[in-house]
Specification:
TIM Barrel, 34% helix, two-stranded antiparallel sheet, 217 residues
Length: 217
């Protein structure tokens, strides 16, 4: 199996974007307003970063909006190639987003909590371009919607991968020490990491280099 695509998330500056691209990122995650978690930047900066990223590298807007109208409004401020919905979409009204933004890819995050996540992922896979499995918990009083640095149950992730027919991204606590096992076990289309290549919240060039070196073995 060929190496999966690598998405570097929580990009917080033009410099970080260029650094991630230099080492081989296929996609960049740009975090909009969130109830919690790392890497939050304003929409003006998200737009500025999206404008300098060359194709075929993808730019993901991470939005915590749950109403389709607000997701569309958020997107129009930033113009990324992809929308990553980190929370549940009200009424599963993906068709409305598709109608308004037919050129934009939709990626739905499923926070792997228990076996119910399998059913949820399979159902939603009919509406979106990719599923991203992460380790947050949207049921908490202050929602955790990503960037936790925790792994989740990869047995559940593996089952989801086997049951859906669209690309799967794996996120949650990945780093150079566990990524090869995760890839071999889950066989995702792509992997997504934030804390695993950061030091004190900043993208760490040494960790990036070590990570991509591990990926290339």
């Amino acid at each position: 199996m060929s190496n999966p695509k690598v998405k570097i998330c929580c990009i917080s500056s033009l410099e970080e974007a260029k650094l991630a691209i230099k080492y081989g990122a296929s996609a960049l995650g740009l975090v909009g307003k969130m109830p919690s978690g790392p890497g939050i930047i304003n929409d003006e900066l998200i737009n500025a970063i999206a404008n300098i990223v060359p194709p075929p590298i993808s730019t993901f807007l991470l939005t915590s909006e749950t109403k389709w109208e607000e997701i569309v409004n958020h997107y129009k401020k930033v113009n990324t190639t992809t929308i990553q919905l980190v929370d549940e979409l009200d009424g599963r009204e993906y068709a409305h987003i598709r109608q308004e933004l037919p050129h934009v890819k939709l990626v739905q995050v499923i926070h792997v909590i228990n076996e119910n996540s399998i059913k949820e992922a399979v159902e939603i896979s009919n509406y979106v371009d990719a599923i991203l499995l992460d380790s947050g918990n949207p049921n908490l009083l202050i929602k955790e919607l990503g960037g936790t640095g925790r792994t989740h149950n990869w047995d559940i992730s593996k089952k989801i991968k086997q049951e859906i027919n669209i690309p799967l991204f794996l996120a949650g606590g990945l780093n150079k020490d566990n990524v090869k096992f995760a890839i071999d076990y889950v066989e995702p289309f792509g992997i997504d990491l934030c804390s695993g290549v950061r030091t004190n919240g900043k993208l760490d060039e040494k960790k990036l280099e070590e990570f991509f070196n591990e990926m290339s073995k």
